[in-house]
Amino acid sequence: MNTKYKIKRSYRKTKYILYKETLVDFKEHFWAFLGSFIGIGLIAFLQSHTLPQSDVIYLIGSFGASSVLVYGVIQSPLAQPRNLIGGHLISAIIGVTVYKFVPDIVWLTAPLAVSLSIVFMQMTKTLHPPGGATALIAVTGSNEIKNLGYWYVFSPVLTGVLILLAVALVFNNMTSNRQYPTHKKYHQFRKRVASVFKIKPND
Q1: By mean pLDDT, which of 41-50, 166-175, 182-191, 194-203 is the weakest?
Q2: Is-contact 65 129, C-beta < 8 A?
Q3: What is the pLDDT of residue 24?
Q4: Which of 131, 151, 148, 152 shows the shortest CA–CA distance to 69?
């Protein structure tokens, strides 16, 4: 009975968040657009100026999915920094590990990487749906990506995730209606830091 209540409560909360985030509010849509544009744009810029002649290394498909959550549904538990960073890193590690130690049979490696990622994200409370794509890319991506080995965890995954997060911390807090992350301690810390840099009036 308790579990059923928790599921219903979680469903109602998610439904409310999705409803609230998709209301026609042009100001909010503007900041969501600008944040995602700059976040993905910075990663693409890094890619085009660092490795112009190679395969896409910094820009992977799962970052697009993360942008939907991190800039478009910022109140969602799945979009919080812990989930964004932890979900991608755990999934990347699992994806690379599966590719290294399991025979390169796509019908085996692909579902194994995704399924293990889901379980480990659940266990660590870092569930982030795009993480499944990050794991999948590690086992089905190009040879350039596969040859990265565990370096894939740091670049493109960690590099890209930190860029998306840094941009989100700026653009998701541009109006009083947008607060990211939802953790109150972060905003208390931010206010304390801001107050330190305020110029005190002369006595």
Answers
A1: 194-203
A2: yes
A3: 54
A4: 131
Q: The tokens of 72 are what?
A: 């478009």
Task: Tell me the Cα Rg of the chain.
Answer: 19
pLDDT in tens, 69-122: 999 999 999 999 999 999 999 999 999 999 999 988 999 999 999 999 999 999
Q: Residue 174 has which token pair? A: 């541009």
pLDDT per position as a tens digit, 39-74: 999 999 988 877 655 555 788 999 999 999 999 999
Question: In terms of C-beta distances under 8 Å and separation of at least 24 residues, what long-range contacts does 129-132 make, across chains too?
Answer: 129/65, 129/69, 129/78, 129/87, 130/62, 130/63, 130/65, 130/66, 130/69, 130/87, 130/88, 131/62, 131/87, 131/88, 131/90, 131/91, 132/62, 132/91
